[in-house]
Write a structure and sequence with these properties.
The complex is a heterodimer of chains A (151) and B (179).
Chain A lengths: L1 H14 L16 H11 L18 H15 L4 H12 L14 H27 L4 H14 L1
Helix pairs in contact in A: 2-3
Chain B lengths: L2 H24 L20 E3 L6 E3 L9 E6 L4 H15 L3 E7 L3 H11 L5 E5 L3 H6 L6 E5 L5 E6 L4 H17 L1
Parallel strand pairs in B: 3-4, 4-5
Antiparallel strand pairs in B: 1-2, 3-6, 6-7
The chains are: A mainly alpha (151), B alpha/beta (179).
């Protein structure tokens, strides 16, 4: 059967490994654990020139500089939070790909929960209204007849 | 339909129009114009060599009692050539401008200024571009207004245009000069 001939080809397709983005630079940290930590921080930082990429994914010169800076600070013993705070002080919250929960981002973070509560409230209200609707005279008569028959 | 039912039916439509209005207003926003974290803050501490002098410049350069511009530029930066004549015009009017040589060699900067003229009172050399990170620089060109006390008051990312100068820079420089 011809279909069997296709099986090896399909099998090869499944062998393709997904592309892994890592900040590729000539100089990486010698300690693999520190390099992994630095990569993790880089993935959370926005490339300010290209805006919708992290500095890991970007080829912009500034992104390369920032990668070097993250590596240096991690190597010097900074925690990931200290590195992020350092950059936020210079570039603002915008440099973080995930916006922090603050008074001016409450709407952003609260909106999904708010919409959920509104929706649940709406459904609940609709249910209660339907349940509380009084029976019409015909329905009352029919119910009485049923009760009489079974009772 | 009762009043409440009509309200519930119309709410999604009203919401849609509301969103359309918000998005339409935001179409005019240029996403490259970003808030600077350093507005209202002093020029960060730095210590950099100065072009063609044996001296070094520090942030005390901006605490001399007169407002100044910082113009981030480089010889490899084509847009910097475009804005150079406008920067030169400002300098000719008496605005003190500090050139920030960004990721460029002294030789490259010397060549650039020899070709196009030197409007800068000082040119500080930030060859690695590391000090510019403290200033929150994205790239060249970029222009900052620093007041007489060394506080950053304004930042423009990208090429200066006559429009930006007339709309933002001149009024600000004027108010700083009167203050």
């Amino acid at each position: 059967m011809r279909i069997f001939r296709a099986i090896p080809l399909i099998a090869i397709l499944f062998m393709a490994t997904p592309a892994q983005a890592v900040g590729v630079d000539a100089e990486v940290l010698k300690d693999p654990a520190q390099e992994a930590l630095a990569q993790n921080v880089m993935a959370q930082l926005r490339c300010l020139v290209c805006q919708n990429q992290s500095i890991v994914d970007s080829d912009a010169p500034l992104a390369a500089d920032l990668r070097g800076l993250v590596r240096k600070r991690i190597a010097d013993g900074d925690t990931p939070q200290q590195v992020k705070d350092y950059l936020v002080a210079r570039y603002g919250d915008w440099v973080l790909l995930k916006p922090p929960v603050k008074s001016n981002t409450l709407l952003l973070w609260g909106a999904p929960l708010g919409i959920l509560v509104l929706g649940a409230g709406g459904i609940l209200a609709a249910r209660m209204r339907r349940g509380a609707a009084p029976l019409s005279d015909e329905d009352t008569a029919a119910a009485d007849a049923l009760l009489e028959r079974d009772g | 339909m009762s009043g409440l039912q009509r309200l519930i039916v119309l709410a999604p439509l009203a919401l849609l129009f509301g969103l359309v209005a918000i998005f339409a207003l935001q179409l005019d926003d240029d996403p490259s114009i970003l808030p600077s974290a350093l507005i209202g803050q002093p020029v960060p501490a730095f210590d950099l060599p100065v072009l063609q002098q044996d001296a070094r410049a520090t942030d005390s350069l901006f605490k001399t009692g007169t407002p100044k511009l910082i113009n981030v530029f480089a010889s490899w930066c084509q847009p910097c050539r475009i804005e150079h004549s406008l920067v030169s015009d400002l300098a000719a009017e008496g605005v003190e401008i500090v050139g920030w040589g960004y990721k460029d060699t002294p030789a490259g900067i010397t060549r650039f200024l020899a070709e196009l003229g030197n409007p800068y009172s000082h040119v500080v050399l930030d060859e690695s571009g590391q000090t510019a990170i403290d200033l929150g620089v994205y790239g060249a060109p970029e222009t900052y207004v620093v007041d007489a006390e060394g506080i950053i008051r304004y930042r423009h990312v990208g090429v200066l245009t006559q429009e930006v100068i007339d709309r933002d820079l001149r009024p600000l420089l004027q108010s700083l000069a009167e203050a």
